[in-house]
Each structure stands twice: as C-alpha cells, then as structure tokens.
Design a protein that fits this description.
Blueprint: E1 8-9, E2 15-17, E3 20-21, H1 22-29, E4 33-37, H2 38-54, E5 59-64, H3 71-79, E6 83-86, H4 89-97, E7 105-107, H5 114-122, E8 127-130, H6 133-146, E9 150-157, E10 179-180, H7 185-193, E11 199-205, H8 216-236, E12 242-244, H9 262-279, E13 286-289, H10 293-296, E14 300-312, E15 316-321, H11 330-334, E16 340-342, E17 352-357, E18 366-373, E19 381-385, E20 405-410, E21 413-418, H12 423-427
Parallel strand pairs: 4-20, 5-6, 5-13, 6-7, 7-8, 8-9, 9-10, 9-11, 11-12, 12-13, 15-17
Antiparallel strand pairs: 1-2, 2-3, 4-14, 14-15, 14-19, 16-19, 17-18, 20-21
Helix pairs in contact: 2-9, 5-6, 8-9
Bound molecules: pyridoxal-5'-phosphate and lysine.
Domain Orn/DAP/Arg decarboxylase 2 C-terminal: 33-388
Family: Belongs to the Orn/Lys/Arg decarboxylase class-II family. LysA subfamily.
Domain Orn/DAP/Arg decarboxylase 2 N-terminal: 40-296
Length: 434
C-alpha cells in the first residue's frame, strides 16, 4: 500500500494522518469525514513555487479553488503565498470572506453574470479571464458604467487534446471555453479589447485539460500561443505580459497513475517557454499556472463506516458505506478509480476482493468496484485515499444526505474546518405550502 504525505500506521496499528489516529477522528467528528493532511498541501504548494524561484522566473501559482473551496482552504492558500483562481460568485465570495487579498484573485468562467462581474470590479480583484465575445461586451458596459479599469486575460483554446478522460477535455477546438486560436477568434478578441481604455490586457490564458501526466500538451500549447504572440506583437503591437498555462497536473490515484513532480512539470514548461521567447525575440512574460487537483488531491482521505453487505454468489460481494456519490461523485461521473484500506487494520492481509457501494438510491453509486480487503465487520472504518480534489467541492444532497464535515490535521492536531450538515440545514431554504 502506498501512503501519501504524513499518512502512515501508528503504534496501535491504525491509520494515522497528520499525527492523528483516524479512529479518533471518526469518533470525534463522525463519518463520512473528509480529512486533509495540511503538511502535504503545503509541500505541494511549495513544490510549485520553488520550481519557479529556482529558475528565476516571475510567476504566479494560483490555486484553482474549484478543486476544494472553503474558507480555511483559501486561508491556507494565502499562508502559502499562492494566488487564487475562482470561477463563480460563490467561490469569489468564499475567497473574500476568508480575507484573501483581492489583487491575487483571478476570475474565470464561461458565463459570468453581470452581478458576478460587478462584484469582481467592486472588490478590485487581480484580473478577469475573459472567455467569449459576449463577456467582452458585458464587461465593457460595466466598466463604462462604473468608470472602472480592470486587468484582463483572454482565454485561448489552443486546439490541444491532452491525454485524459474525454469528459474533462477543455483545450480542444470543440469546447465551450475560450477563444479559438486557429480560426482567428483570439485575434478578433484582441482587436476588441486592446483599444478599450478601461481594459489592461495583461496576457493570454489556456487550460488544456485535467489529470494530465505528460508535459507534451503544455509544451505544444505554449508553442502555439507564443508563435501567435510574435505575430501579434508585429501586427497589433501587443506584448503579452502574462502567459497563463492553466492547471491539470495529474496525481496518483492508484498504482497505475504515474504523475511527475510539480518541479518536473514546471521546469519543462519554463525551459520550453524560455526557448520560444528567445527564438521569437520576445520579452519573457510572467508564467502563471493554476493547479487544483495537484495541490489538494492526494492530501484528502475520506473515512466511512462500513454497514451492510450483500453477496452475489460467484459474481461479487458488495460492502456498503455511509456515504457515496453524494460525497464523491467522481467514480459515477468519470469512472474514476480509488484505493482504500481499513483504517483500523491497514496492514492486515487482504483475503477477498469486494465492491464498495454508496448508500444512495442509484445502482451507479459505487465508490470502488474491485478492492482487495481483509475480513470486514460492521465496525470497520474504510479510508479512501486521494479524495481531496473535487470530492467536497462536487458533493451534493442527493437523497437528502447531509454533506460530511471537513477536518484539517497537522502536527497531531485536528481542526474542524467545515461542520457536518444537519437535517435542519437540509430544509432551511424550504418553504411550506401554507
Ligand atoms: C481554467 C482552469 N484552471 C485550472 C483548473 C484546475 O485543474 P486541475 O484541478 O486539474 O489542476 C481547471 C479545471 O480543470 C480549469 O478549468
Ligand atoms: N471535476 C473534475 C475535473 C474538472 C476540472 C475543472 N475544469 C474532476 O473531478 O476530475
């Protein structure tokens, strides 16, 4: 079994993380429970930042908060000197409520509303990543109305297909995101934004997909964009101060996954950009990246209590846990794979392969199809690894199941950072018929 960060087995033979026994966590905070290894998040953040510092490149590492957005997480990102990518009024609100410096917030999204854009302008956030022509017009009208200047990036769709799951491809031509590079949309967008007095066009952005294990996609995207930057410098006198290459750096969910280290992704990207910039005799732009999953994914563990079981003779044995697609929709949505152990006996030898089912009223509510486990009983505690990204953030109340609590662990201390939802919470916005 591969243990991440501070996760290991303590003297009681139990799984521990951040110096805290997982059985204690389950006892104190209940299950299902999202547990985050804070030291590992810090290590990942520093890994990305140091990689830029080492190469003496001006950079911003913006945490893509969609992966896991809560007040405490945003504060941790701030402590680590990250910038922040938000993609909705709700994520922006969370960031501001957490006291995150507005000038380091970047606002994404393919359909930002007038209210969301006004909110961003009112708080003078760092920049808005304009996604489409509709948004150019909308943002112009707001800037005029409020006589406010704003920094913008243009989101470019470079036509790169990263090797990843089909559902999460975003850099290919047929995408709902961004201005297409091939068919002249980016140039048209530059022509519409550069002369507008209230816009400061900082540069260009692209994001080619998620859970990517190779650097080739990033390098190709950089090549395509820098080549155009040279053309636009000549033609439009546009000098891109920022080149944002997005997020998407892969992590290790199972033994089959072989991600690179943050420093490896970053150093290859920098090498390529430096080479291209030199080749086209351009000024080196700041390089921005937006890791989400790779900052928080493997730092998260979900603890579940095992309940019912069902044998389908000669087919499989189902073991059901007290959560499921309501707290982790990724297996149902992307056939995502996870590994898990029994937190109360992580080193016990597996003697059967079981299928971990959730408790939602949906046949597809499965967390792990084939998991080798030792003999299990009712009081066993299942720890599913690598649930830190897009678990809590995509959690839902299907079947009116309350969302789990979230706990941060570090140096032997556990801190509750999101309370468990209650049944009262579930109906708090419901209004009676009369
Ligand atoms: C624009 C943008 N930036 C950053 C991210 C973060 O991606 P990941 O969590 O894979 O690093 C995403 C999500 O895929 C995104 O759409
Ligand atoms: N939510 C997805 C990835 C999409 C990232 C946002 N563009 C996941 O769980 O893998």
């Amino acid at each position: 079994m591969y243990f991440y960060g501070t996760t290991g087995v303590n003297k009681n033979g139990h799984l521990e993380v951040g110096g805290v026994d997982c059985l204690e966590l389950a006892k104190d905070f209940g299950t299902p429970l999202y547990v985050y290894d804070v030291a590992l998040i810090r290590e990942r953040a520093r890994g990305f930042k140091h990689a830029f510092d080492e190469q003496n490149v001006k950079a911003q590492v913006a945490y893509a908060s969609k992966a896991f957005s809560t007040v405490a997480m945003v504060q941790l990102a701030e402590e680590e000197g990250l910038s922040l990518d938000v993609v909705s009024g709700g994520e922006l609100y969370t960031a501001l409520a957490a006291g995150f410096p507005a000038e380091r917030i970047h606002f994404h999204g393919n359909n930002k509303s007038r209210e969301e854009l006004e909110m961003a302008l009112e708080h003078q956030i760092g920049c808005i990543v304009i996604d489409n022509f509709y948004e150019i017009d909308l943002l112009k009208s707001i800037c005029i109305e409020k006589s406010t200047k704003v920094n913008v990036l243009l989101r470019v769709t470079p036509g790169i297909e990263a090797h990843t799951h089909d559902y999460i491809l975003t850099g290919q031509e047929d995408s709902k995101f961004g201005f297409d590079l091939q068919n002249g949309q980016v140039e048209k967008a530059l022509e519409e934004t550069l002369p507008f007095d209230y816009f400061h066009v900082l540069g260009l952005h692209c994001h080619i997909g998620s859970q990517i294990f190779e650097t080739m996609g990033f390098l190709l995207a950089a090549r395509k964009i820098v080549e155009k930057m040279a053309e636009w410098q000549e033609k439009l006198s546009f000098e891109s101060e920022v080149l944002n290459l997005g997020g998407g750096f892969g992590i290790r969910y199972t033994q089959e996954d072989e991600p690179l280290l943050p420093s490896q992704y970053v150093s290859e990207i920098i090498k390529e950009v430096k080479h291209l910039i030199e080749y086209y005799s351009l000024k080196m732009p700041e390089i921005w990246i937006e890791p989400g999953r790779s900052l928080v994914g493997d730092a998260g563990i979900t603890l579940y209590k095992i309940g019912s079981s069902k044998d389908v003779p000669n087919v499989r044995k189902y073991l059901a846990v007290d959560g499921g697609m309501s707290d982790n929709i990724r297996p149902a949505l992307y056939q995502a794979k996870y590994e898990a152990v029994l937190a109360n006996k992580p080193l016990a030898r597996a003697n059967e392969t079981v299928s971990i089912a959730g408790k939602c009223c949906e046949s597809g509510d499965m967390l792990i199809w084939d998991l080798p486990l030792p003999e299990t009983g009712e009081d066993d505690l299942l720890a599913v690894f690598c649930t830190g990204a897009y678990g809590y953030s995509m959690a839902n109340n299907y079947n009116r199941i309350p969302r789990p609590a979230v706990v941060f662990v570090e140096n032997g201390n556990a801190t509750l950072v999101v309370k468990r939802e209650t049944y009262e919470d579930l109906i708090k916005h419901d209004l009676p018929l009369k």
